[in-house]
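Q: A reviewer asked whether we had any structural model of the full assembly, not just the individual parts. We don't, so I'm hoping you can provide one. Inputs are below.
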Amino acid sequence: MSKRVVFAAALLCLAAYVFIYATGRANPPIRSDGYSYYVYLPAWFIYHDPSLASVARDCCGGEFPAFTAIIRWPGTRRWVNAHPMGVAVMQVPFFLAAHGLTKWSNLSADGFTLYYQHAAGIAGGFWAIAGLVLLRRLLLRRFSDRVTAAALAALVCGTGLLHYATYDSSYSHTYSFFLLAALLIVNEDWWSTFTKATVDKSAFGKAALLGLVAGLIVLTRHTNVLLLLLVPLYGVSHLGGTRNALAAGRARWREVAITAGAAALVVLPQLALYYEATGRWIVSSYGDLTFNFTSPHLWGVLFSVQKGLFFWSPLLLAAVAGFWLAREHTRPFALAAGLIFAADVYLIASWWDWQFGGSYGHRGFIDLLPFFAIGLAGFFAWSARTRLRTIVVALTTCALVLLSLFQMLQYWNGVLPISDITWEQYKSVFLRWQ
Amino acid sequence: MTRHGWIATALAVVAVGSILAYLRDPAWLAHVESGFHGWRTGPDGVRYRWTTGHASFFVPSSAARLTIPVRVTFDQPGDQPVRVRIAVDDRPADEFELRDDRWTSRRMVLPAPGSRQRRRIDIRVDRLRADNRGVQLGDIALDGR
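A: Here is a predicted structure for the entire assembly that you could use as a starting point for your response.
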């Protein structure tokens, strides 16, 4: 059943994507943040100039427009991209296919014409579905097929995941969604080798894979380095347990070194690019835009009508409850998920633009949806214990899913403002098409 | 490989080949363009649209000559002249500089048609005005062979 849900999700994403672009509901996919995540690809493969200067000359008369968030570094005057290269790395196969097709069709091979646009758009949906495939594997280790199916379906239709897999699919969020799902699986596999009396050779392969995923997570979105807390905190159910985790890490330092080395190798090209452009290995690529840690908008990012996570995806409250209600299943992840979520909330709430610009719901939390999938599955498993609970939860979930889908369509139709929505505005367009 | 495997592979090759043959020169390419803002009408009644730094569009390969009305504005004190390069199917066809805000009509002879039904025109500028605007392009005129 859960396999069918993943297949149906893929078809739904494809249908929604075709609907959005065939009806002109969105501009071509490589836009806004999607532009700066993608721009590395034409720079590498078409202009053979990683400095981005050649792309700027061809696309933009020598100067990137402000919307691209690509700035000239003071002092060196070289281009620094606010967004790192991880998304572009994961788009490579799609880009190369589009490049071949572009040449074949005699379209302009500048990196931004028709096939490139949709290659970047479809890639985001692909990685969202790939993330669901991995999540399904993870959930089936703990929950029944029906519970897994329900959790995945609710995640796709009851949160912003479908929107970021289609309408805004060139942003980094579905890539990070996939990578966190991968980290959950690979990390669990790696830790499972610890319980064996002897270390087999596969442990080193798993350690290298863990490093690759960890590196890609940082390469895709630097602040997601927080997600790597999952590695030492897996299986730790109370803070005192971290000592055991550290001792285990010390005992198998060779694997830890392999993981760290692989992660460093993946991140190195990005650091080299920063060094080439600025003379520093680590930079704040957003320039003057920064965090305000003394007055975080905690209420705003969690519950506000503007972009509150639980306001726009109320189903996720059930996921939070599910971590507690089904703690026998969720225990290995609970502490890590809680700490990472708390840290991410604080970080996002402290960003100068805590709404993250024009977006449906709060896009900053799409990256964490694999954690919420575990909680949702826990909640559905708990609700399946009695018939009454099952009925109540099923009906409530269906209602929240329908509300979420309807509001997403409102956003696509331009009924909902893209940011700064007020309670009065929300009430005035509630359940209205126009 | 089994018999079914061979058949599946052959069908896949035929399908991919057919799709590629269709995509080499499809009719809808005539409507594909990139690097343009929306159409507007100026105070002089001329219909135009701004390019970005690089715009491209297709014209029928049966056309022998092409006339492109082009203009740029000088709204800000520091606005510099704009150099424009036009290419036909990636071959340089024209290069000029716009030093004032008058409309200029650039006429060019198109090379003999090749094997495709359409040819691609690319327009690049060496600097942008605010809001990602390159030059204004009026309605393109084509003369047959």
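A: Points you may want to mention in the reply: The interface with chain B takes residues 57-63, 65, 67, 101, 104-108, 110, 112-114 of chain A (CB under 8 Å). DSSP finds 20 helices and two strands in chain A.
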